[in-house]
Amino acid sequence: MAGFSSSLLVLIAIMVASIQFHGTVAQTRHLVGDTLGWTIPPGGAAAYTTWASQQTFTVGDILVFNFTNGQHDVAEVVAANYEPCTSTTPISLATTSPASLTLTTAGTHYYICTFTSHCQIGQKLTINVSASATTPTTPASPPTTTPPSTTPITPASPPTTTPTLPTEPCPPTSSPSSSPSSPPATTPLPPPISGAPSFTAVIPATFLAIGLAFLSY
Fold it and tell me: Can you give the residue range of the structural domain that contains 109?
């Protein structure tokens, strides 16, 4: 939990620093009159008119008036009070130097010193403030389009149909090994043994022996 709280605090600190840095970059500090400061100009009001013409004022910029305390001040007045140097009901009044005034609105702003006759002698300033920085924007280049390919499309050839001929039954192919086999060889029987008595000779001898046996009884 402590680690989570520390991380959250670090994140908040980074965000605040980023916002302050962004504000610092966006703002421009203008030192009124530069080295002359805010005083009675030796050449009259033209000195501040020339200085203002060399500046670019934008909402958010800061005017810094350097003057001697107790001898000058700076008041923002409306346009009707600028030319006659009327210091009654000013928009703002700063009596301590350096006075830093932030430009919060666009348009023409008028500043005078309210000390006696200082405004009439030339201690007065008018500036024009822009709403935002006029940064020129470069128009985006149009997207490059690739023209469609002009390659002619070759029509597909019709499929070639080959007529199918009726197939005839093929005669059975006789394998060389299927030739009729030769009849089995017969082995001749051995000739009868000449010394053995034949069957026809044994039968009469048998009957003769039987007859002789009956006669002997």
Answer: 28-130
